[in-house]
Amino acid sequence: MAIATINPATGDTVETFEPHDSAEVERRIAEAYQAAQTLRSTSYAQRAEWMHATADLLEADVDRAAAMITLEMGKPVAQSRGEVLKCAKNIRFYADNAESFLAGEELADPSAVAASSAGTVWQPLGVVLAVMPWNYPLWQVIRFAAPALMAGNTGLLKHASNVPQSAMYLDELFERGGFPSGSFRTLLIGSAEVAAVIEDRRVKAVTLTGSEPAGRSVASTAGREIKKAVLELGGSDPFIVMPSADLEAASTTAVKARISNNGQSCIAGKRFIIHTDVYDQFVGLFVDKMKALVVGDPMDEATDIGPLATASGRTDVADLVDDAVAKGAELLTGGSAPDQPGWFYEPTVLAGLSDDMRIVMEETFGPVASVYKVADREEAVRVANQTTFGLSSAVWSNEEAEQDWFVANLDAGAVFLNGMTVSYPELPFGGVKDSGYGRELAAAGIREFCNLKTVWKA
Predict the structure, then answer these.
(1) Which residue in the list 72, 266, 363, 440 is annotated as catalytic?
(2) Tens digits of per-residue pLDDT, 382-404?
(3) Quick one: CATH architecture of 4-233+433-457?
């Protein structure tokens, strides 16, 4: 795949980039390795100062960076602006909290281990490779980079090939904020070259956000090299609505959950599992609100849904919908690509799904919602847990005991009650089953790429 910015709203190629050759890749790895030796010896206070300066740069760049994101992957520009500001918030969060998250601990009674003192310290691993996707071109990277650099690690970025402008913006960002040269470096390489970077002895760990096949490939290489890996893979998140729910609020939030980022989000609500007692009312509200969405130019502030990021991505979505309809699914709205330039797809709602339809088990990465009618909470959980994914989930219920029951029984990395899944710097983020392993964000995220070292003193 060419490394190029292709405007998904028009299909036009805006700019192409030459991949880095082996000599340039070597130079950048060496630079990151050297920077790691420097960065680990700096203080938290110094790194925090650089982090705050980096956040200031992002906030100053918000309009330019947002336009860049929208140009490269097509989300509405208001959402791109929100992504940039969220990155700045995450950077400040780790600047302010890294030292406490990585504070050493001392045993209260070291004599229990025959020592005068004993405890643990957290130390950085060194160079960490990040293999990142296009759907949140800055946020996906920053949520790794901010904690990694605050811990004293350095980063190498292999970004998706369709967001090279975002990749090169990130290549300079932390150095502009004051970090030593080489603290964060982009590698303009193809997927086939990732394994060689993981295998490099100077690279100590890898993190990937992306597809399940990509995760299996990266995890296989990391396992063979006995290197730490964190994987955030796909999701087909359930959005469950029970009779006690506020249906107006639930249906409004359901639409936002499904179409945010043009429906291209791992943590989006994708499968809407509705109790039979409120099914007709909820679906009526939901479909009406999906029909009212504005599809159009993502640079227009009035647009709700822009184009999908790639032509192949739209084809994948269309194939899932067409397969379901051909096998008897009911199309409640949408179901086709508008006749216009760019990779647009209509907001779509499908009902009457059966297990032979691909969409039941596969992730739908676009503005397509699947609706299920269930008789009780047990059937809701059975449908919710039937896929191989387990990233996040949402439950709408105003009965506290019922909320607790769902929290206990859903196979997911998170449960959001009477809301939609959102990633916050303050909360750990990650999944179970084929959605990956490890955690990003919060204290758990910064500790993933650190060595927890035991210190015992006679």
Answers:
(1) 266
(2) 999 999 999 999 999 999 999 99
(3) 3-Layer(aba) Sandwich (3.40)
Is 59 in the active site?
no
- How many other CB atoms are found less than 10 A from the CB of residue 67? 14
Nearest to 397 by CA among 290, 288, 274, 289: 274
Closest CA to 362 of 308, 316, 430: 316
* 232 a catalytic residue: yes
Q: What is the pLDDT of residues 283-337, one digit of tens each?
A: 999 999 999 999 999 999 999 999 999 999 999 999 999 999 999 999 999 999 9
Contacts of 38 (CB under 8 A, 6+ apart): 180
- Give the active site residue among 232, 362, 440, 448: 232
Give the mean model confidence (pLDDT) for residues 272-285: 98
pLDDT of 116 reads: 98
Q: What is the pLDDT of residue 280?
A: 98
Angle between helices 44-60 and 77-101 (to 10 degrees): 170
Q: Please state the three-class secondary structure of 202-247 as a single string.
A: CEEEEEEECCHHHHHHHHHHHHHCCCEEEEECCCCEEEEECCCCCH
**Architecture in CATH for domain 237-417:** 3-Layer(aba) Sandwich (3.40)
Q: What share of the chain is helix, strand, coil (3-state, %, to 5)?
A: 45, 20, 35
Strands 237-241 and 394-396: parallel
pLDDT value of residue 361:
97
Q: Running DSSP on this structure, what letter comes out for residue 441?
A: S
